[in-house]
Amino acid sequence: MPCDSSHLSASRLEVECSRMHMLIDEMKTGKHPNVKSSAWDGYDRRAYNSYEIREMADRLTAELCEMIQKDKDITKRSLELQVWARDHKIADERRSKKAARRKRSVSE
Question: Distance of alpha carbon 7 from its chain centroid, rounded?
């Protein structure tokens, strides 16, 4: 049997970072991402096998969020970007509510 790299799957965080890189590229160029590419599946060279993947994810999230907030109307952007923005907004709201609950429970 020949050797292959099938055991080297991209992690979920590598997939998300790869996609955020591509969505940031879309915000900068206006060109929709190729969702059939290996980069969309987590193998973007900027993210795959990175030693600082968590820090990268936080930095990319902040950068993409800021770009979306400045754009105001992302309805002409790709569906992938719109879904990311929606999911990120929901996650932010949940995180804020959780922090508020923690703050209340500490002060009681």
Answer: 23
Alpha-helix runs per DSSP H in 1-78: 12-29, 53-71
Sign of CA dihedral 59, 91, 80, 27: negative
Q: Is the pLDDT of residue 80 over 60?
A: yes
Q: Which residues contact 41 (CB under 8 A, 6 or more apart)?
A: 10, 15, 18
Q: Which residue has the tokens 């609950």?
A: 101
Nearest to 57 by CA among 72, 38, 44: 44
Phi and psi torsions of 67, nearest 5°:
-65, -40
Give the residue, 5 or 91, on which the prediction is more confident: 91
DSSP secondary structure letter of residue 77: S
Residue owning tokens 């979306």:
68
Residue 48 pLDDT > 90: no
